[in-house]
Design brief:
151 residues, alpha/beta, Nucleotidyltransferase, domain 5, 38% helix
Length: 151
Amino acid sequence: MSFIPDEELKERTGLSMAPMIDFLFLMLAVFAALAVSRIVMRDTDIELVRSKIESPSPLIDPRDYKLIQITISEEGTYKWVTEVRDYSLETPQAIAQELAHQYARGLLPEEKLKTQVLLKIDREARWEPILQAILAIREAGFEVRPVYEPS
């Protein structure tokens, strides 16, 4: 007669799943951290610009720079605003294509950093069309700056 049951004395032939589950959670945490850091790194250099500038700087020649104004409405529609008229654009890719088209025609400065795209965003606009426009303009190689009007 033994104080330890025979079932506990036998060797176990099963596979322990605990280390595999720990490894899976660790991998999930690593990929989640990478995804978040990638998004954060893309958005760190977005600067807001006032839409009304009191006086231009005497050091910057306005003829050297080209300002392009694009508005995003509450519904998420895009308009290219010029002095003459507004042009509706369907998608963020259409904005990037129009920028590339004007750059190829020589209407924009040869150095892309001298072209500033100003995004005038409606206060009620959703974030998805705003982010898509910012990413499309950056992928085209141009600087983009969301603007606001001081209240």
